[in-house]
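Hi D.,

Good news: the full-assembly prediction came through. Inputs first.
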Amino acid sequence: VTHEDSNLVEVFDLSSGTVREPTQVDAIDDGQSVGLLRWWPWWRQTDRLNRALASVTAAALGVAAVAVVAVWRAHPVMHRTSRTVVSAAPEIAVDALGCPRASTCEVGVARSDVLAAALAALPAARVTYSMQSVDASTGSVYRRVIELSAPSTRVQVVSQCVPGSAAVTESPLTVMTDVGSTTSVVSPDVPEPSGPKHFTVTVPGRTGCGINVQAETTLDDSRFDGQQLDVAVSRMAQDPRLMVTP
Amino acid sequence: VTAEAPTSQRHWTVAVAALVAVVLALVAASAWSAATRTRHVTTVVQRTAPAAAIAVADCPAEALCDSSAHARSQVVDRVRTEFGAVTIVSSEAIVASDSGKPYREFVQALTSSGVEVDVTTRCVVGGATPASSQPSAIPARGPAELAVVVALAQNCSVAVVVIVPAGVPVPWPQALALAHSPDLQL
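Then the structure:
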């Protein structure tokens, strides 16, 4: 006897005429297991139309869910962060003569036209020293030092190019006077005190290049007053023939 | 024994099965999307630190230096030890005003045979360790202009340049000994 509500059947024992308990009927239901697979018998008992309907419904919903997620993913939540990685500055290695580590250099005296340019600014001087460091393969001058000597006056012109170096800092002409043990910067508005003077100026060239001219008077010499030397030092610093170029 | 369930119950079963399938699909989809919907975009900007500026006059831009007309006495003494009686033509030192730390020393000497010996010790602020170097071939006699460079610790080096007149023997062993002398190290 089939019960509509409980999906159970009552089984009559024809020999004894007794009715078995409904709970026991589950155990013999189709000879299949109960519990986790309890839906399986029902699936099997369902007609093909319902199975197909359920399958199509489940598949359609699954596809719809995937489609929704796909659309959702197409517009993702973006978390943008920016990270700056600062790598070390390039190493600059130059030796005492101004030759970069990666180069092979030759030394020699400065060219005569360069020396002439230095002497043109201070005709009374003579060249006491000149040395330049030249790239053996390219002929580029890395560093040039020229020293001039005049009565009671000594001038040094250093020009260099260091590949990879930052721009040389410009330094305007400064005149300092040694009075006793103190050193003071001479102001153009104040009369120059007597005594030895020190002039220095640095002019940048191309990146990594520059020229520095320094002059020193050892005595309060009347032959080269401050103004004369001032002009000579400035002229040398501005002379492109004295500036080393890469 | 096979029991046939009523039709309404079968429909309900199918509906429940479909609902379970949908729930499972949604749960799976939610888990998938939660893991993939959020995107972290990290932009890495590569930047190189600015290179140091090598001072032309060997005094760093931020420092105050004194120029002295005399290198250390041990440098001059060492030149005399290696080359004998020499005339010191020029000598100077660039030192930090506050600490007295030398950035460059220079000695120009002239030997009795007319060989000019130039010694430069220099520490390049902002620089790295330079390379030692010397000529690949040393002539026996001048004329020659030869330099030997010995790298020291950090960014310092010693250079000895000999300018040899024609016909004069090249004092290369003396130049090498002078360049490697500890007395010259800053």
